[in-house]
Amino acid sequence: MDKSLITTAVELTASRRSFLRGLGVVGLSVAAGGALSACNRGSSGGGGNGGSGGDQLNLGLSIPFLTTPFFAVLVSYVEKDVKAIGATQLEPTNANQDAGKQLTDVNALINAGATGILAGLVDNKAIGPALKAAQDAKVPFVALDDAPATGSLFAIVRADNKAMGAQAAKHLASLLGAKGQVLSIQGDLATTNGRDRSDGFREWMQQNAPQVEVIERPADWEGPKAGDITATALTQYPDLAGIYMQADTTYGAAVFSSLKAAGRLAPAGQPQHMPLVSIDGGAEGLDAVRDGTLDALISQPLDLYSKYGVQYLDKAVKGESLKKGKTDHDSTIVDYQGNLMDLLPAPLVTKQNVDDKALWGNSELAR
């Protein structure tokens, strides 16, 4: 993979830059796609229904953006998982948060010989044409971490984001004695994950801790915006009792900076401590749990997104199918708007289990 391009595509904390330089992620165009083929596609199967059998997986990975370690680490996991099953992979693409570019990227991957597409989505409402392009080319498509609003695909692999929001609410309420004002720093409400993480948190508080006032502010998965929201809330709500971050890999550094500037970044047990709970589980989030500045996080199963995303594409190109119900990996495959979605479990992480080597943020790939 090209080692030089990724360093201009990501803006992350200094502790992650050395890791990211080792990844090669390119932005493809349709014209360039043919030159990047890892093998000939031949006759591939499937679209939303899987392949017709007999094909080998030549995976095309479409990443929505690389301004967070979450997707940067995913690139490395996918490369490892593809090799583990003896398949091949094209150079990954980075859409840089541009839905139009993601459509171009998917078409380029198909033209370059991909027999299966694995993708995180820039915009779940705008991904329809890319799904149609894959289906027309009989190339199975698996979406990771978010669910398309329209279109047909082989599978969706994600955690139950509403349940993660409820887990975060339950833990934060326990820290606050089920009362007080809390700031919910939301994601992009145009995304399924942004809505689900907000709804799960708010609804749990309304039903189980009605004396907690939830103050919601969307940060659109943008770290600087999350930092500004935090700084404003600390001034506007002097009695603010807790904060819920919907993405520590994106928001953590900026939120911690704003807390530090206000004299509120301190370990649990100290008077200046601001109770904090988050979702994601990156390496820096786990370190913050260790030092006590972050009380808990819900770890997205990023490693399993890759593992089962790759496995499902391999099934699809071989003409195999999925079915609803319990799986052999402690999850449930459900019907979501006519597509099959594997809802993977996401564990709550506190000081008691933060050193668990099974957490993706503790892996060598994340550090």
Give a nutshell description of this structure.
This protein has two domains: 6-145 and 301-322, Response regulator (Rossmann fold, 3-Layer(aba) Sandwich), CATH 3.40.50.2300; 161-299, Response regulator (Rossmann fold, 3-Layer(aba) Sandwich). 38% of the residues lie in helices and 19% in strands.
Task: Describe this protein's structure.
This protein has 367 residues and is α/β, with parallel strands linked by helices. The chain folds into 2 domains: 6-145 and 301-322, Response regulator (Rossmann fold, 3-Layer(aba) Sandwich); 161-299, Rossmann fold, CATH 3.40.50.2300. Helices cover 38% and strands 19% of the residues. It has helices at 6-9, 14-20, 30-33, 69-84, 99-111, 128-136, 161-176, 192-208, 223-236, 248-261, 283-291, 302-317; strands at residues 58-63, 88-89, 93-94, 116-120, 141-144, 155-159, 180-186, 212-218, 240-245, 276-280, 296-299, 325-326, 332-336, 339-344, 348-349. The strands form 2 sheets. Strands 1, 2, 3, 4, 5, 6, 12, 13 and 14 form a 9-stranded mixed beta sheet that branches. The protein starts with 5 loop residues before the first helix and ends in an 18-residue tail after the last strand. Residues 1-35 and 37-47 have low confidence and may be disordered.
